[in-house]
Amino acid sequence: MKRMAVALFATALLLPLSACGGSAEAGSGSTVTVTVGYQSKTINTVTAGTLLRSLGYFEQQLDSLHDGHTYKVDWQDYAAGAPITAQMTAGKIDIGSMGDFPLLLNAARGKQLGRPTHLVSVTGYNLRGGLNTVVTAPDSKLASLTDLKGKKVSTSIGSAADGTLVRALQRAGIDPDKGISKLNQQPAVGASALASGSVDALSQFVAWPGLLAYQGRAKALYDGAQLNLPTFHGVTAREDFARQHPAVLEAFLKAQAKATDYLNAHPVTAAEKVAQATGLPTEVVYLYNGAHGIATFDPAVKPQLVSTLKQDVSVLKAAKLTGDIDVDSFVDDQYVKKALGTSYAQRLTAAPAPTASEVWAGNSDKTLIFTSAKALLAYVAAHQDGIRAAYVPDATTGTLWFAGKAVWVADGDRLLPFVTPATAQAYVTTHAGARTVSYREALERAV
């Protein structure tokens, strides 16, 4: 009966998947539909999804092929990577984007079902892991990760955020299986659970932690960048589709690179486009995707990221979500190398933009950059009515955060921001005379 129930569920999952993928054979002069799965609210995938779609670059690249075919793009929006993988392995999605842990599950599932997929490019990444955050309720007395022992924590099992939680708990000496009560929930469900008090903390990926903090519904408890392990999102394509339509995949990657360049050249406008399409606050989108945001966007498949994928396999195996995965055979950067040509080598070695304190004033399409968090505070104190958003990098991890939501430390004449109370306290403990201060006091001291 159990096997029958599973079979019926799988059948029900596949029944609505009737769209024609681009892998369908097409004769000269026919219409080829290319199906792209993306996650609009997972805003580190926007250069392969939301922003790319709004700019129309992929359609433009397809129009320039002049190969006798007419191309149609079917954009399909999902809340997570798992359903994209389900549709890819059913032959219904040709190109998809998702986070690093879901990418590994995509690789494993594709191989298992005889429909192999490949990682063909990267969207957004953070080399320290700052895209994932553990948050708790605004009035919670929890002050550090060790306080989670015996508590209820919501996360999405198999996601990058779950990987961050597992590793962080292990480093804190807490068994991630027995030391906490873990609830497997979609981000929106977990956010509601946190608000109702049915869970003590929420470990999630972009943009949920920043969104909840911005809305005053949560505060940061653990900054994923404390792990100092890269996390990223990337683009995966079906192997059969790539072989049958290499020019189409190349067109997609050229369009992605163009969207990446647009985001980097026009970060405010790009954030506004993404916000309009997703309903997310523009200030939250900019926190992650801005000029000095938590995410860096580049399609190059950097060696550091491939190395991280290999380390991630053990986490998924321990959770019994997958077996061994041949990461080297999953990664296939030949198409993005061809798409980007001579610029690929330069992108491959390019470093992320340095962190900086930044103010978004009024309705301007430009932001102001400050050399220190104290200088930003002085400006905010003098222009409080005209500030749309103020961002500061954590003094130890570099993770950007809202100035008004940061934990501030006064150390002599210095004013230092931290994402979490624990990192602030760690600094205070090792610096005689330093102490935490309120945001209001920090503003007053900056003038």
UniProtKB/TrEMBL annotation:
Keyword vocabulary terms for this entry: Signal
Residue ranges constituting the SsuA/THI5-like domain according to the UniProt record: 80-270
Source species, domain of life: Bacteria
Residues of the signal peptide: 1-26
Pfam family, one: NMT1
PANTHER family in the record: ABC TRANSPORTER SUBSTRATE-BINDING PROTEIN, ALIPHATIC SULFONATES-BINDING PROTEIN-RELATED
Name used for this protein in its record: ABC transporter substrate-binding protein
